[in-house]
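Sharing in case it's useful to others searching the archive later.

Someone asked me privately for the predicted structure of aspartate transaminase, so I'm posting the question and my answer publicly. Question first, with the sequence:
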Amino acid sequence: MQRSQRIRGLTGGGSDGWDVFLKARAMIADGIAVTELTIGEHDVRTAAPILQEMHRRAMAGHTGYAAVPGTSSLRDTVAARVQARTGVPTTRDNVVITPGGQAALFAAHMAACDPGDTALYIDPYYATYPGTLRGAGACPQVITAQAEDAFQPRAEALQAHAKAAASLLINTPNNPTGVVYSNATLRTIADVCREDDLWLISDEVYDTQVWEGQHVSPRALPGMAERTLVVGSMSKSHAMTGSRCGWIVGPEEVIADLITLATHTTYGVPGYIQDASVFALNLGEAFEADIAAPFRRRRAIARNVMARQNTLSLIPSQGAMYLMLDVRATGLTGEAFAYDLLEQHHIAVMPGESFGAAAAGHIRVAMTIEDDAFARALKTLCRHAEQLAA
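And my answer, the predicted structure tokens:
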């Protein structure tokens, strides 16, 4: 029997970018101690009060089929949060709850693209983006952002591809670079989307992790609310990665279509998880700041460590839980450096090549272990780079 071309072609015939991560996990399974600086998962788990609320709601019986669009209370809470942060009028009719941000990305492209449509995304990108677009039936088309521009996409690069496309996917604060798009960049993106009639899909799961400047949702820019689908999630803001609770915010008629899609695919998110998400969101911005605080600290630690060496270059990290380091002075690709670091020192990082051609020669370091261990690992990484360069 022949498998579908859609499923066989998700990775475009190459690697899905997770090879170093999988090798590190295999080493751990074999009993080898590995320092993991790979995936974006907090070193602290979901806070006890959120888990207690989840348990309480499950024991109270909210374990059956939940409302497919999401519970009214969660949709209302998300809408109020978005309106308060952006100033854009938002109600539950603008919100559909999804099983995490990844499902939201897929659903948003199902809404924006017909089979065969060109869907734009920006390199460097989160590793799942191209496969997500292919899975939705779209044809991925990359727009390259350059390291010398601090990975802010240029207007001419956007304009060169926009006329033939149906959608544009952006991510700010950005994974993997840590870059926060400037107001000028976002205005340019909005101009291109309006001029060429593009859907904008804005991945904003790191909106609570901004170290410099401020996060601006492009949905709040003039003429963009009717053409923007915002992806959000509980995972990063509330350390609820395993709970798989996210959302899409967009125009009412598109949300209605996405509810129909959910009826035929995921059939909603467990009710007790949604109840716990309402509880978590109502803990307020101070709680979200506490969840983000370790990454702000570790960014400062990294800057101090990096200032004491001259081999690696640090891409300015303005947000999110990652650092992007330029390792080209070692003479190795990002992938070769990552494998060598894993073999020699049992430290696992993600190769820049996992995130696109623009990130080649770089590595992504997740700031997701305890402060002292993070500092030690980063110092070892820098020494390793210095030895290679010498």
